[in-house]
Amino acid sequence: MSTDAPSSLRNTLLTALLALTFGFLGAAAWSGSGLADNRTRSYLLSHPELLPEMAAAYEEQEAAKRLAKMGGEVFEEFPGVVLGNPKGSRVLVEFTDYQCPYCEASLKDVKRLVAEDPDLKVVIREWPIFEGSDAASRMALAAGIQGKYPAFHDAMFKMNDIDAAAKAAGLDMAQAQRDAASPAVTNEIARNLEQARALGFTGTPAWIAGKTPIGGAVGYEKLKEALAAADTAG
Questions:
Q1: Which of 59, 96, 116, 218 could form a disulfide with 103 if both were Cys (CB 3.0 to 4.6 A apart)?
Q2: What is the pLDDT of residue 51?
Q3: Which residues contact 223 (CB under 8 A, 6 or more apart)?
Q4: Is the pLDDT of residue 64 over 80?
Q5: Cβ contacts of residue 210 below 8 Å, gap of 6+?
Q6: Is the pLDDT of residue 75 over 70?
């Protein structure tokens, strides 16, 4: 947001977004607030690029409220399904799908964060929402049980072939197939879906950086800032 925007305008932009989002009820609240003056209207019309930013900020704010009401289960990894330091105290959660091109593009950001921070633990929540992704997610969780999740995770994005990725990761295939079909794996995928919906996520990738839920392929800088903000907040 522009630093030269009057402070009174900065305080009213979210109200404007709510008015736009909720139609007549929002318009009534907007009008009743005394903020619907020509100056604010003119500023919004002159800066339409602010609306997507406002919408994203509002969605993240609401997701943070929902996260606060959830238990700590979302931060606890399925056995072995973690990148970085498994004992790290700084936690990044990623909801991912192997058929999602934005998840693949975000892989470099996660690797950079891990390389820079030896205390970072990346908890991966397998969330197969694309057609054909369920089998890959199941094999990934089976790889976690064998302690070979990072190798499978990388190979699967690179090869886009479950059998080839499993072999590249060195999995015991017979055991992996049994584990992939197990109730534990089925329950984990169902739990991840439930958590994603509870947080209001609509697609992958989606993140919890520190205590901040974030939707989309937001890039390295935003993830790093959110993790740093969590450190500052204590």
A1: 96
A2: 67
A3: 92, 109, 113, 207, 209, 214
A4: no
A5: 90, 91, 92, 226, 227, 229, 230, 231, 233
A6: yes
